[in-house]
Amino acid sequence: MKKLFTIIAVAALAAGVSVSCQKEEEFKNQLVFDGEQYQFDGVEIEFHKEDGIRINPRLVQNSTMKELTIDFARSLVGSRVDLSAVDVYAEVIAEHFVHCIFIDYNDESTLQLTWGGGIDTVLAEEGSYILVQDLGGSNYQIDVYCKSKGHLLEFHYKGVCFEHNYSEDISYGDPANCYVVTETGYYSLPTVKGNSNETVGEVASVEVLWESFGNREKPQAGDLISELSYNNGKIYFHASERKGNAVIAAKDAKGTILWSWHIWMTDKPRKQTYNNNAGTMMDRNLGATSATPDDISSFGLLYQWGRKDPFPGAGELAVKIDWTDSMVETTGAWPDAVASDATTGTIEYALANPMTFILGNGNNRDWLYSEDGANDNSRWQSEKTIYDPCPAGWRIPDGGENGIWAKALGSTVQDWESEAWSTEESGVDLSETDKTLATGVSVWYPFEGLLYGSNGKMGGASEIGGYWSVTTRSKDAYVFSASKRDKTIYNYLDGQRSHGCSVRCMKIE
User: Fold this and answer.
1) Which distant-in-sequence residues (6+ apart) come within 8 Å of 437 by Cβ?
2) What 3-state DSSP class applies to 121?
3) Could you tell me if 310 and 389 are in contact, meaning their C-beta atoms sit under 8 angstroms apart?
4) Which of 285, 297, 401, 469 is the most exposed place for a label (fewest CB within 10 A)?
5) Each residue of 184-222: pLDDT tens digit?
6) 194 to each of 85, 133, 307, how far by Cα in Å?
7) Burial (Cβ within 10 Å: 0-12, 13-18, ≥19) of residue 358
8) Residue 277 CA from chain centroid, whole number
9) Looking at residue 83, what is its pLDDT?
10) Would you tell me how many other CB atoms lie within 10 Å of the CB of residue 488?
11) Is the per-residue pLDDT at 267 higher than 60?
12) How do residues 65-102 score in pLDDT, each as one tens digit?
């Protein structure tokens, strides 16, 4: 039967710092439980806010022991804690996980040692103890000897340590390509492909590719994301209090990007229920840090159809022909757009080059290259794929005659003119038009424009807006669109898949 053995000494655990120790062979490092030795390749120590630390040996994959955790009090570091003077409980908690020990630290003089879930009070036998010593220079020595209820744990480690902060797992067990951060703090995310549990591969390094406030203010590296590190299948980082967007990448030993994740730093997006039970949508564009009308922060980011990684757009509310000097300011160096061919027009190239805009090819009007003119429709679908850019619980909506917009508007007419908006505004409130998406709340759709698939250049900002759907038609994909130029709402419109358009995420019901 597999064993999970956990030791916890609760000491005001909140946000703090984590230490990853590399095993040194000259010391007799060992982890033994009931006579069976378990292999580990290092130790993590999380330093929490106030008085808490958490110690985890990194058990090798496929170990029958799944986890050993020691939550301890920082004030007790350097002191030998006698476990024979505390209560012990024993319980088999699941078929594959047995022998859990919890040590609850109540105050500096009282500890409670618990086996399982709090049944059959006994004592740890005489001689049982925990001793954690800070040797300086990131060196630690950890000694645990606990014998109780017929079980014996021995854990001894001495080694050099790497520090990083305690973090909240931002995936909450539901991985995605985009993670919403609503407040400053330390976070972590698993290095798995979005919307799956498939690992991205062997990660050698991590990097913040770019950061942006979503306007013309020039950010400095670290303004949004700092203290970036990687350890044992997780990326750790600190998010500042500023709103904006950033992309973090994991790389292999050759420096090739394996995968990248969008960190969306905003107030929590609100749900909006559309008319006719059509569905629930976000109140803002993907990447927008505001849903306020005529606010540049409501524009958000732009996406090529079927790609998970975003591109910044216009940085100001204006109508222009040349946007060269008016784009959103970011950190990082954006490569020139590349022509789509058998090398660049591939999923592999797009994943490894998330900042490179891939132009459409003449064979299929897509950034994804095809010699015979065929299109791959599997990248975005109603069943969320690994390339869907929306946060967990949300997806790219369906479009066309049976899409969410047509259902909410109560019409399958492709387009119609509407006089119910001001030509002075940079978008349209679709709760005030003659046909509405929802009522009783502002439904702001900004005219973010698009990145043209023919040249990668910005156009149409503050004049037109196009919103991707998963629904395809021939070589194109449907967009929901509105145009200030002719005061027309397009229920569904053919969109060239190489264009960079806005995304408005739909709640997965």
Assistant:
1) 272, 274, 275, 281, 405, 408, 409, 430, 431, 443
2) coil
3) yes
4) 401
5) 999 999 999 999 999 999 999 999 999 999 999 999 999
6) 48, 40, 12
7) buried
8) 29
9) 73
10) 15
11) yes
12) 667 777 777 778 898 877 776 543 333 222 222 233 44
Half-sphere exposure in the Cβ direction for 443 (13 Å, CA): 22
Task: Output phi, psi for 225, to 5 deg.
Answer: -120, 130
Strands 70-73 and 7-8: parallel
Judged by average pLDDT, the poorest of 78-92, 107-121, 230-244 is 107-121
C-alpha 396/C-alpha 385 separation (Å) is 10
Strand partners, 278: none
- CA–CA separation, 237 vs 23, rounded Å? 24
Q: How many helices (H) and strands (E) does the chain have?
A: 2, 37
- Give the rounded percent of residues in the chain with a pLDDT score beyond 90: 65
pLDDT per residue as tens digits for the range 248-263: 999 999 999 999 999 9
CB 246 within 8 A of CB 263: yes
* Residues 6 or more apart whose Cβ sits within 8 Å of residue 502: 285, 286, 299, 300, 301, 302, 303, 446, 448, 450, 465, 466, 467, 468
Q: d(Cα 455, Cα 371) in Å, to the nearest integer? A: 20
| pLDDT > 70? residue 13 | no
With tokens 């330390």, the residue in question is 186
Tokens of 146: 């606990």
- Mean pLDDT over 151-167 rounds to 80
DSSP string, 138-185: TEEEEEEEEEETTEEEEEEEEEEEEEEE--EETTTT---SEEEE-S-E
Higher pLDDT, 375 or 85: 375
For residues 38, 42, 48 and 52, what is the CA-based torsion angle, rounded to 10 degrees? 40
Q: Which residues contact 462 (CB under 8 A, 6 or more apart)?
A: 314, 317, 318, 319, 426, 447, 449, 484
